[in-house]
Design a protein that fits this description.
This protein is mainly alpha-helical. Helices cover about 70% and strands about 0% of the residues.
Length: about 190
Amino acid sequence: MTALLIGFGTASAATDYSHASDEELAKLRGTMRNAPVEDRIAYHNEWQKRLAELGPDNRMQTMRMPGGRVQNCRIGIMQQQLGLNDKQSQQVVALQQKHFNSMAAERNGLQSLNIELQKESLKATPDRKKIEGLSEKIGKEHAKLARMRSSHIEEVASVLTPSQRDKMGAMFNSRPMRGNCGMRFQ
């Protein structure tokens, strides 16, 4: 029984992705869906750490790697659909980069709370008070993220003309699924 527990403890340890190259990490992206939770979080945290260390130009280049997410596809769509001029485009890019960096730490904190909640819930005798407390914290984190998103939208809207804001509202109403670069599925 002890050998089984020791084996389980080693099997559940997260993989260290800090030694992988950016290309190797990008190639793993599509496979992480089936990986253990700890590995997915370790992978995500490594990407977040690397992206935070990069400058804006290098960040975009890294995110365009095979298997990587093309983060700026939304900016291209916004430029096209809203008719942003060069100055507005630069301001929106700067606001989105600032927003991305501020949200990264918050998302990591939320993931940690969710992992803690899952671990507690899987125990033979879960602590109901701890689960209740973690659930409350998770709810507060979601509310904080929603306020941060709202603040970001306000900042972007301040760069736009009234007609561009109206178009942006229409874009939100017909918003494509996340990560599909403008394609909408129904």
